[in-house]
Amino acid sequence: MCENGFVFALNGVRSRETMARRARADGEPLFRRYDFHSVGQHQRQRMEDAINQADAELIRSADADELARHFADQFALEAPTLVEGAMSISVEETQVDVTGDFMFGAFGPDPTYVAGIRAEYYVPFTGERDMFYCIPSTHSIGLRPLELGEAELTFTYERPNQDVAATKTEFDRELTQIRQNLDWLQQDCRRFNPTLAAQARDSITARKTRLAQMTEGVNALGVPIRRAAAPEPTGQARTSSGQRGRQAQVGRAVERYDIALSFAGENRAYVEEVAAGLKAAGVSVFYDAFETANLWGKNLIDHLAEIYGNSRFVVMFISREYVEKAWTTHERKHAQERSLFAQEEYILPARFDDTQVPGMTTTVAYQDLRRITPQELVNLILAKLRR
Q1: Which of 136, 145, 215, 316 has the most CB atoms within 10 Å of its CB?
Q2: Residues 157 and 171: beta-carbon distance below 8 Å
Q3: Residue 371: its pLDDT value, please?
């Protein structure tokens, strides 16, 4: 491979006709900036800070094991998930620099350009953008820099002809490398995450002890205690650093809904009846089909984080598909983060089956959708809203 990225058939090297020129070499190298151990240590410190900043009454009154599971789930590391079903491409004419390419005899002192194409492949992803910089314990070398956006990867290729299919060959090869590195990164996350609960419990227990000692000391003074103001109800002050960064980009508050519905597409028929019943009753409800125009053009990662972390209640329609999907996992985690600091119940679980939900204990009361109709669920929600 020459310095300018050209590939040609010499000594068995892959033919130029099957290889596209890689463009945008000034992009960002992925899986090269932070080693996983350092990322894990940083995440442990963030969890420790969150426990120390959590509402004192929550620490005093909550069951230490249950609260530890909540914190462990909230600060668990996850590799980003490629949303390949939403992948897209753009192709345009361009002038391709072939300077130094013997196939074009372009060896003059000045740049030589020929008519060609630029193809850009866009692959959306969910999850923390910065995790793309993390070096997995096992990783491949030779990944070229790519353009890493807020919610998508951009692969750019140029060819001095109109053979778009050749760019797809190179894209498929590089996408396979990205998938492999994400798989390795997720394996590291699976080894790391189970260690968080024990650390969280130790930190919660230590803070409980400090609070008890402080209270004992204050009571010994015999001076009336002034009660602190009620904590911020939205819990936004205690969000993760990744969420804080996303919230800063939103720029304005998202409408606060009475009810946000979180569900997998396989369960839409039931959920749509519930959404229609709530809307007919005058409830402010977030249901994606009601928001088609409003969602058009928005960064859904930021927008949905706001909605599922800032509504009055989230009705979580639990099923096997719900737990497996990337977008519903994104919604669930933001709802659970808000629930952790809420002063009352925030997530209202409704089950299509008995699938276990990460971060949710089996003691949380739920509605069994195998036994009640959509209208009966609407009535229960209205009762919850005291309508």
Answers
A1: 316
A2: yes
A3: 92
Q: What is the mean pLDDT of residues 172-177?
A: 92
H-run or E-run covering 93: strand 88-97
In contact, 46 and 75? CB cutoff 8 Å: yes
Cβ contact 188:36 at 8 Å: yes
Mean pLDDT across the chain, nearest whole number? 81
- Asked whether 49 and 203 are in contact (CB, 8 A), the reply is no
pLDDT at 150: 83
DSSP state of 129: G
Angle at 101 between CA 105 and CA 154, to 5 degrees: 145
DSSP per position, 301-313: HHHHHHHHTSSSE
SS3 content of the chain, % helix, strand, coil (to 5): 50, 15, 35
CA distance 282 to 26: 53
Domains of the chain, each with CATH number or no CATH: 1-210 (no CATH), 236-384 (3.40.50.10140)
Radius of gyration from C-alpha coordinates of the chain: 26
Residue for token digits 């692959």? 123
Provide the pairing of β-strand 134-135 with 34-35: parallel
pLDDT at position 180, please?
94
3-state class (DSSP) for residue 236: helix
237-270, pLDDT tens digit by residue?
334 444 444 443 333 445 689 999 999 999 999 9
Report the distance separating Cα 153 and Cα 114, nearest Å: 28
- pLDDT for the residue 58: 81
152 beta partners: 124
For 83, the 3-state DSSP assignment is coil
Q: Whose structure tokens read 């509402």?
A: 55
- Determine what percent of the chain is predicted with pLDDT higher than 70: 82
Mean pLDDT across 329-355: 86
What residues does 34 pair with on adjacent strands? 134
Q: Which pair of tokens denotes residue 185?
A: 């990164």
In this prediction, residues 31-55 reach a mean pLDDT of 90
Element (H, E) at 210: helix 196-221
24 burial level (CB within 10 Å; 0-12, 13-18, 19+): middle
